[in-house]
Each structure stands twice: as structure tokens, then as C-alpha cells.
UniProtKB/TrEMBL annotation:
EC number: 1.1.1.1
InterPro entries: ADH_Drosophila-type, NAD(P)-bd_dom_sf, Sc_DH/Rdtase_CS, SDR_fam
GO molecular function: alcohol dehydrogenase (NAD+) activity
Catalytic activity: a secondary alcohol + NAD(+) = a ketone + NADH + H(+); a primary alcohol + NAD(+) = an aldehyde + NADH + H(+)
GO cellular component: cytoplasm
Transmembrane segments: none
Matches recorded under Pfam families: adh_short
Assigned keywords, A-Z: NAD, Oxidoreductase
GO terms classed as biological process: alcohol metabolic process
Subunit structure: Homodimer.
Protein name per Swiss-Prot or TrEMBL: Alcohol dehydrogenase
Homology family: Belongs to the short-chain dehydrogenases/reductases (SDR) family.
């Protein structure tokens, strides 16, 4: 839904990083606004920081500039503790850290905007999913810390913290 809304705007490029290649979804986005170049790269958010940096180098080499990063990966499965933390928090930290190397004004970067997807559970934990809630609280705290550096780095950071949404995330809840 976020990508659908983004392509309706005056964008030049939309780059989607996901572990699942969905050509039908990419075609749908291209059809909404043929003026926007929509590109897909396979990416697992749990990849190590070095792999994330390598992929971003490829993307920046192709596009020259990237203005906004939306970190939207997430799982809700407290039976998979390590994976929940890896996807919901560690991967987000790695992606944010990697793009900061390209954007940080102290390193000659242009600045940028990071939108990390948190959850209302980051503020009000749900006792049935303590690991998920804690991982989203970590997202909120991490993003607040990065946001406080905006005057130094030129990178604005914020979280969007939705409540329960109608996605596959809640199928096992």
C-alpha cells in the first residue's frame, strides 16, 4: 500500500528491496504511474551489514541519489525469537547504518530521510507478543537516537507506528 501511494506522487524512481520477487506487484506499480521507474532488488533484511552496504553501493551507482529509505520489514512470531529480533530490529539497524554512510553530511553526503516502521506495541506492549513488542520498542528508541543527530548528519529519521493492520503479519496472532 505504501508503494502504491508513493508512485502516485512526483517520484523519479522507486526501488524495492525484498526477499520475495513479485513481478505482478512491480507491474501493478509501474501501471499506476508509468513515469516512475520501479526497480526490484532481492534482499533479505537479515543480511549482514557488509552485504547491505554492497547492495546500496550498487543502487547509488545506478541512481546517483536516493532521497528516502522506508524500513518496512517485520514479522510477528514470538515462537521465533531470534528471527523476530533479526528482522524487526537488527535488519533495520543494519539498513539504517549502511545508508548513513552514503548520506551523512560529515562524510560529504547529501542527507536524506529515514522512515522506520515501528508499531504501537513499541509504546504499549501486548503481553501475548512480548518479543515482537520489545523489538518494536527498540525500533522507536533507535530511531529517536538517530533523529537527534539530524543537525549533524543531515539525515531526518522518524517512525511510523501503526496499530494492528490487515496484513499477513497477523495471520498467526
Amino acid at each position: 500500500d505504501t508503494s502504491r501511494e508513493l508512485v502516485k506522487r512526483d517520484l523519479k524512481n522507486l526501488v524495492i528491496l525484498d526477499r520475495i520477487d513479485n513481478p505482478a506487484a512491480i507491474a501493478e506499480l509501474k501501471a499506476i504511474n508509468p513515469k516512475v521507474t520501479v526497480t526490484f532488488y532481492p534482499y533479505d533484511v537479515t543480511a549482514p551489514l557488509t552485504e547491505t552496504t554492497k547492495l546500496l553501493k550498487t543502487i547509488f551507482a545506478q541512481l546517483k541519489t536516493v532521497d528516502v529509505l522506508i524500513n518496512g520489514a517485520g514479522i510477528l512470531d514470538d515462537h521465533q525469537i531470534e528471527r523476530t529480533i533479526a528482522v524487526n530490529f537488527t535488519g533495520l539497524v543494519n539498513t539504517t547504518t549502511a545508508i548513513l554512510d552514503f548520506w551523512d553530511k560529515r562524510k560529504g553526503g547529501p542527507g536524506g530521510v529515514i522512515c522506520n516502521i515501528g508499531s504501537v506495541t513499541g509504546f504499549n506492549a501486548i503481553y501475548q507478543v512480548p518479543v515482537y513488542s520489545a523489538s518494536k520498542a527498540a525500533v522507536v528508541s533507535f530511531t529517536q537516537s538517530i533523529a537527534k543527530l539530524a543537525n549533524v548528519t543531515g539525515v531526518t529519521a522518524f517512525t511510523v507506528n501503526p496499530g494492528i493492520t490487515k496484513t499477513t503479519l497477523v495471520h498467526k496472532f
